[in-house]
Amino acid sequence: MANQITSPRGTADVLPSDSARWQYVEGVLRSVCERFGYQETRTPTFEHTELFQRGVGDTTDVVGKEMYTMEDKGGRSITLRPEGTAGVVRSFIQNGVLAGTLPVRAYYILSCFRYEKPQAGRLREFHQLGIELFGAKSADADAEVIRIAAEALREIGIKNVRLELNSIGCPDCRPRYREALYSYFKQYEAQLCDTCRDRLEKNPMRIIDCKSPECQAIAAGAPMALDYLCDECRDHFESVKRYLDDSGIPYSVNPRIVRGLDYYTRTVFEFVHESAGAQGVVCGGGRYDGLVGMLGGNPTPGVGFGMGIERLLNVAASEGVEFPAAPAPDLFVGFVGDKGREAARKLVYQLQDRGVHAVYDINLRSLKAQLKYADKLNARYSLVLGDDEVDQNKARLKNMADGSETLIDIDPVRLAAAL
Q1: Separation between Cα atoms, residue 256 and residue 120, nearest integer Å
Q2: Which stretches in the chain have pLDDT values below 50?
Q3: I need a labelling partner for 353 at 20 to 30 A (CA). Which of 168, 208, 306, 363 fits?
Q4: What is the SS3 string spanning 241-302?
């Protein structure tokens, strides 16, 4: 026997027994997005590497350490998408979407790829819901996408989450904050990790996001962006908070949130699960007003978020959220003998054509084994066809929950109506 091939490290299979939970969560997410007026968009799984270097930022861990990058046969550098926003912006610029009526509201559910240490709720291939709102610079847009995230979490049934907000300023006020950060971290340069010593010169704000305990301890005393906001950014942030108050969405201001991607400006936010420890962030996002221009389009404001589906499922499981069961057959048709088998097959085909979830045994098992199989499938009803039933065109329809039986014509129209 050949050696068994297993899945690559950091990936996970979704088995048939698990798929109902995924479908339910994805269905809730789609429903919420569409209720708010968002339409689905889809982008390629891989893009030119330059897209992420320019859009995500070459000082981020994502670009510096975590991307799956390769050369194709034409010698071009290609990267599996590590996040969704940059690809959507590229798509909308290339296809002229942002030249039409604004704002543009879009969502996507896709897989992303990052080479990082696999751990609970974090895989090398993971899936996320993304929301993108382009063409609205007002705080109303920030509040809208946050409301979508809050509503999605509520409808899935996740309760123990808190919303944390911050503002990291804009190109007008960020330089002054950058200077303050540089001066602060410079005095600790020798104690910073190698990556953060490089960040000190390129983008000292990234040090705040470092996962090294030593760097985190140093960053705890760093200047806060809120103290360096210009009047316009401060007014914007106050408006976001006021609109959330109007929506009844509780929040706290966390001045240490900077998010992990360079394209963010002004509002940044996270929904954090209160009992999930280091992996508690189930949703994160913010505003990225400069990204479209950075990637070659006309300057267009944007705001959005990403919500990890694996982490949603893990958090829901920790809270004991009950998901709907996988769909069970409406009817299992058993049979005895060749005539019964022929009739069972034809009846099942006719019922399926009418939208009924009907099945029969294709393994030619004994009737006893067939009925055990029907139990395992959790079929709602069953009936058995043999010579007598076929000749009389009648069979007993059995309710598998209470055992009651009803004599019924073997007619697909009547059966479909009875199920």
Answers
A1: 23
A2: 278
A3: 363
A4: HHHHHHHCCCCEECCCCCCCCCCCEEEEEEEEECCCHHHCEEEEEEECCCHHHHCCCCCCCE
Give the pLDDT of residue 118: 65
Cβ neighbour number for residue 95 with a 10 Å cutoff = 11
Tens of pLDDT, residue by residue over 350-379, are 999 999 999 999 999 999 999 999 999 999
Query: What order do you get walking across the sheet with 394-399 strand by strand?
Result: 358-360, 331-335, 381-385, 394-399, 405-409
Q: Which residues are registered as beta bridge partners of 125?
A: 113
Helices and strands: H and E segment counts in the chain: 15, 16
> Is residue 123 left, alpha or beta, with left meaning phi > 0 and alpha meaning psi from -120 to 50?
beta
pLDDT at 201: 84
Query: How many residues are given for the chain?
Result: 419
Residue 260's pLDDT is what?
A: 60
Pairing mode of beta strands 381-385, 331-335: parallel
Write down all domains in the chain, each with its CATH number in brackets: 16-173+229-318 (3.30.930.10), 331-418 (3.40.50.800)
- The pTM of this model reads 0.89
